[in-house]
Amino acid sequence: MFKHILVSTDGSKLSGKAIRTAVRLAAATRAKLTGSYVISPYVAPMYGEAAMYVPAVSPKRYKELTAREARKALAVVEIEARTAGVEYRGASLTADNPWEGIIRAAKARKCDLIVMASHGRRGLAGLVLGSEAT
Description:
Elements: E1 4-8, H1 13-29, E2 32-39, H2 59-84, E3 88-94, H3 98-108, E4 113-115, H4 123-129
Parallel strand pairs: 1-2, 1-4, 2-3
């Protein structure tokens, strides 16, 4: 059936459900599992009359902080996979939009299934807030 499954995580509790589902599916089909965490690129703070003041974070510090969050989120996937006896690899990458990074990671690793959580937003909420899962 499936040979290589990619599960995307943002470190949230909702992602935990997707992780557990992906691990169970990988174990049942003897598939490999890749955990994916997408990092937004660094954007320098804006200043000006209409801009809100945001404390500056250097590109180096931003990279350190986001790398730490990625490791933390992917560690959850690794623990679940190892516990279930599933072959696992983690991947964190940078992309402008999470969906682009998820698809890029899946293609690069030749995954034949992507598992991810969805907030289930529909109607106006889905239109206004958007949906990476969609």
